[in-house]
Each structure stands twice: as structure tokens, then as C-alpha cells.
Design brief:
Protein name: Thioredoxin domain-containing protein
Largest sheet: 4 strands, mixed
Order of helices and strands: HEHEHEEH
Strand order of the largest sheet: 2-1-3-4
CATH topology: Glutaredoxin
Radius of gyration: 12 Å
CATH superfamily: Glutaredoxin
Strand content: 15-25%
Distance between the termini: 26 Å
Domain Thioredoxin: 1-104
Helix content: 40-55%
InterPro entries: Thioredoxin-like_sf (IPR036249), Thioredoxin_domain (IPR013766)
Length: 104
Amino acid sequence: IETTVAALEVKKGGKPSVMVVYAPWCQFSQAMEDEYEKFASEVGGDVEVYSYRGDEDREFVSGELNTSSFPTVNVIKPDGTAVKYESEVRTVDAFKEFVEKTLA
């Protein structure tokens, strides 16, 4: 996702989705990138997967996407609620489990 407007459209789009808010200079964002890409390729069907560069609009990501640090993974429920992934375990299986529990 390239713009704040596009990120807001995802949040209010009515479809379940997962969005990582990252900063390209952040070593933790860089370290998680491969696992998140694997997760994105394995999750399909009814859940859309996005990434959004959040360091360019911190007010938006703080207010709309529960983000105060990078990376932050959120499940966006169909009603637009963003649920933050709180664990430090950043693996494909951990992301899948979080999505399943959050959307159950």
C-alpha cells in the first residue's frame, strides 16, 4: 500500500485483512520481512495481506493502526477494527494462529 488513503480504504473495506506497518530503515522490520512474505504467500482465500510504510505518517498509523513502533502487524476485522499482534514471535505459524484466533 502506497498511501494513507489506500491504507484507510483497506481498514474500512469490509474484508478481513492483515497489515504490517513497517519502516524500511528499521532492523526489526527488515528481520521480519521474509517470514511476512512467506505468510502472505501461504494465506489466501478470504484474507488479504498488505504492508504499509508507516514512518511517513506516524499520526495516521498511531491513530488508525495501533502503531507506535515498527514493525506492527494488525488484523483488520470486517468492521474496521484493527487488532494488534502483541507477540515477539514473528513466524508464519504464529501469524496464522493470530489471524485465526482474531477472526474466529
